[in-house]
Amino acid sequence: MFKKDFPYFKNSEIAYLDNGATTQKPQCVIDAQVEYYEKYCANTHRSNFGDANKATTNYEGARKILKEFINASGNEEIIFTKGVSESINFIASSFVSKYETVIISSLEHHSNIVPWHMQGRTIGKGLEVVKCDENLSFDFDHFEKLLSQNKNAFVSVTHISNAFGKIHDIKEITRLAHKYGAVVMIDGAQSLAHMKVDVQDLDVDFFAISAHKTFGPTGVGAIYVKKEHLADLLPYQTGGATIHEVDYHGSTLLDSPYMFEAGTQNIAGVIGFAQALEYIKHVGYENIETIEKDVYTYLDKRLREIPDIEFYNDIEDSVGSRSFNIKGLIHDDVGILVDKMKIALRVGHHCAQPIMKQLGIKGTIRVSLAFYNNYTDIDKLILALKKAISMLKD
After folding, report:
1. Judgement on whether residues 330 and 368 belong to the same structural domain of the protein
2. Is the pLDDT of residue 11 over 90?
3. Residue 82: CA atoms inside 13 Å, Cβ hemisphere, count?
4. What 3-state class would DSSP assign to 288?
5. pTM to 2 decimals?
6. Which secondary structure element, helix H or strand E, spans residue 8, and what is its range?
7. Are 159 and 206 in contact (CB under 8 A)?
8. Helix, strand or coil for residue 89?
9. Domain identity same for 267 and 380
10. Residues of 240-275 as b/e, b for ≥16 C-beta within 10 angstroms?
11. Which of 34, 91, 133, 363 could form a disulfide with 349 if both were Cys (CB 3.0 to 4.6 A apart)?
């Protein structure tokens, strides 16, 4: 029903099932960016002629839209970045040095692992990993044990696993972390495309956001920073647009968020992101969740028709992504063949090598959904998979 809003589907016969990597963009998002470049292209926060004022107004309007969308308490808590990877690196570089231990989950994307390695943190030496069970569920007993043993901890976990679609109970994770005096950052890359996020209700300290996985442009994201932490957050970069006054003896910086947004930002992208959020509000999370649950359940049902299929978690407490393998087949080979049949999905380790190694596999075949997917997409997928399996087993 909603595919008509997305130009990609007007121009392609592909069953697009790689939404965990990036989502398609509705026409309103594309139009907003084109309008900026064609009708009022100017820099923000600098000049005061008409187009520059309009660019600044729309850019800051986008901040307000995002602030309200996730229920932040103030615009100063929303800092625009290139995306979740930069958001996590920003906080890792500018805030976390005073914490003796970083605690992560077993289901993290490399973007929430490598930044800690760059600080010299490894297992038992400033980095701890919460165990998961055979269904990839978060081990809260182990988590509380780690919190009790590490009094000065920074917790950084994914909201939804990009590789398996598993949802972490962020509210409970945050409650326990705060009980032991820990600070919490959430990788929300996969969140806003699927569910409503209220940062005040979750009580998180930091929440990293991606635009391109939320029907918005690439190269744009944000980090929510709870107001009480802003004074302790150091600028990641400095220069244009961050300063109040400069002379050769020193510099004074502006207040948040401007002190953290050095240089010319991705103005068109931020404006486009605002339109993506407005589009989601137009569709409504109630519709999104109803459609996705229906199609996700149908996907699981149809996949189970395939002999020798191997799953790594059930669909309870999961959304968006479904990962699997076919016994005796290499996932890369399956991916190559279904691509020839106009099916777009992802095969590999999905930037989550540690959990793949823990499971004893090199990767999976991942189908990841959005609300514009339907039964027809799933039927095309199943037909292609059966053909690919037949070819590879002959």
Report:
1. yes
2. no
3. 10
4. helix
5. 0.96
6. helix 7-10
7. no
8. helix
9. no
10. ebbeeeeeeeeeebbebbbbbbbeebbbbbbbbbbb
11. 363
Query: Which is catalytic among the residues 28, 41, 132, 351?
Result: 351
Q: Over the range 337-347, which residues count as b (16 or more CB within 10 Å of their CB) and which as e?
A: bbeeeebbbbb
Residues 254 and 316 in one domain: no
132 a catalytic residue:
no
Q: Across all residues in the chain, what is the average pLDDT?
A: 96
pLDDT digits (tens, 9 = 90+) for 35-52: 999 999 999 999 999 999
Q: Where residue 250 falls among pLDDT bands split at 50, 70, 90?
A: very high
Cis ω for the linkage preceding 307 (within 30 of 0): no
Condensed to tens digits (0 to 9), the pLDDT of residues 110-134 reads: 999 999 999 999 999 999 999 999 9
Going by the DSSP 8-state scheme, the letter that residue 203 receives in this structure is T
Which two structure tokens, joined as six digits, stand for 164? 């398996």
Supply the range of the domain harboring residue 259: 28-282
What are the structure tokens assigned to 272, written together? 């486009």
Q: Looking at the 3D structure of the chain, how many domains does it have?
A: 2
Task: Report the alpha-carbon distance of residue 293 to residue 287 in Å, rounded.
Answer: 10
